[in-house]
Amino acid sequence: MIKLVLDLEKANRLDSKLQEEHQVDLTTRQMGEDEMLFIIPSEYEQVFLRVLNEVLEQELPLWFNTYDGNIKVYPSDLLYFEVQSGITVFVNEFYKETVILYTLAELEEMLGDLWFERINKSQIVNLKKITYIRPLLNSKIELTLTGDIKLEVNRSYLRAFKKALNEKGGV
Asked: How far lies 116's CA from each of 76, 106, 161, in Å?
């Protein structure tokens, strides 16, 4: 069992997300004016921790250096990162490409604790934006993202990708 106290704003978002998306109704108690206590039975610990992580990470924006300055982006708004002719871009949920001044290796390090994973030499995908996974020949996988965007998991990245799906969540 886990007991956790959160400020009321985060607690309400967490509680509604647990109920709406996972049909989990937990025992909660108001603690003063601006805090809520969650009591989580052991059978819900994994889903609770995953959703808590999502709620906390969604609040924290990422700042990326661009040619024009810095841009603030929320992780939940990103579909994937890609290197095109030596230039790194990210594609957001509006399918807009933005050039950023990072290598994929630097992005992997920055995004390591979030729900992003490298899928080939030129792309990092947001696991939460995957809507369909289809096996291909030669130990490859085709991913379909929100907006019917197709990306391919290279076989040399396949094991790490499957591990990330299990550990970080996603589909």
From this structure: 10, 13, 10
